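quick one, 500 residues, struct below
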Amino acid sequence: MLPVLKQTWTVSAVLLNMFAQGMLLSYTSSLLPALRAPDSDIQIDLNTASWLASCVGIAGIPGFFISAFLMNWRGRKQAHAIVLIPGLIGWLILYFANDVTTLAVGRVLGGFTAGATVSLGAVVIGEYTSPNNRGTFLNLKTASVCLGGLVMHILGTFYHWRIVALMTMVPYSISLAIICTWPESPAWLASKKKYESSEKAFKWLRGNSEESRKELHELIQAQKEKPVTTKKMTVKSQLIQVLLKFTKSDFIKPLKIIIVSGILIEACGRHIFPAYASQIISEVTGDTSQSFYYTLGIDIIITGSATFSSVLVKIYKRRTLLFTSGFSALFVLFSVCAYLYLESKNVISSGNSIIPVVLFVIYFVSVNLGCTAIPLALCGEVWPLAHRDAGTAISGLVLSLAVLIGLQVTPHLLESIKVYGTFAVFGSVMGLALVILYFILPETKDRTLQEIEEYFIYGRYRDEHKTKEEAKMNVASEKLLKFSHTDKLKMNDCDVESKM
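---
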């Protein structure tokens, strides 16, 4: 079997998890309206509804930390299998739920698995796939989440929310079966000094080409140069070691990128729109009866653009794609906010809902080409191997808090400042995040994880360093030649004078 097929098979388990995560995030778009209906057997108010939507963000925090601990202790394969189990149980609990507390427990368990698999899935893709395929696979994570949201909006329209909960167990079950066929991560095996096992797993995934042999050599050599710790560490010493990471530049630099990236993802409406799609579209169009078809159309376009982004990322550089799509999306977003505001003030005639809907479509297409995919991909690229477990936990904390805040404040913003005000607030945050990333984000396209790791240590890539050193040497050589040439002319002049 070709290496790319083996990598695709491995990554398919991660993509199925992301598909299920999309269903989890969009589940509230069918659950909450059903619970707030007068004939519902479980009645909830606005505050309870916002907590049922946002509690997945709170649950994601312990999920990130536990998955970070498991991935370092037991490896990527076992960690991924273990953290899927709460998600399966959570959907089963939702199916049998008869009160708000039970619903919350089911959502929390689902949020735990979602949080645990976001960064862990990115790490798996980063370590299991080759540099030229890594960007595509990481971007497909976003496409899978979008597709999960699309499927959930369809299922939620035609089936009861209990039946939908049962259906969502299917992708988790298939993913768990695929994970059982994985080899362990070559990078994790190398970090544990199991070099023979690392080489075997690496060759199974990447083949035995000259390029892959070079990458394997660099990976193993880098781990061999690191000191071996045989002393058993206490909990206190481990905590001190984690805190000391905040003094190291190769930890702080990726951390800044992840924090701003997490803010950017939520400000783009990455989780907000799927959760409150029906409410947003109903307010924009003023027609609740057609909101499903508008939502479905936007879902299809968003999923298509996110998938197309996986193609573009192989052609264009990460930074080019991120900032081109990001600032274009920002312009469109402020345009639609201005239109809706003027419409609300009767400055322009209302009733022409097709204009804001088209603008929203253009916005979500633009934003899914880079702003929602690339920041998530960075979780699997920027953390050095020595900090990958702690970095994953911190990434999870940042992303979970961002999801929690975004989902918690959105229903209140929609009630108070309407759709145009809500997206104007998020758009302002999005613009600020893009500006900051412009100055701190390196280009990672086609770079090995080892090269990216060295970038955060030395401040530049190896080949860039060599280019600068070569330029300096060339300048020095030119000066030396010029100096030698001048001396030679002077010597010739002296000879002429002496002869005279």
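The CA atoms of residues 93 and 106 lie 5 Å apart.
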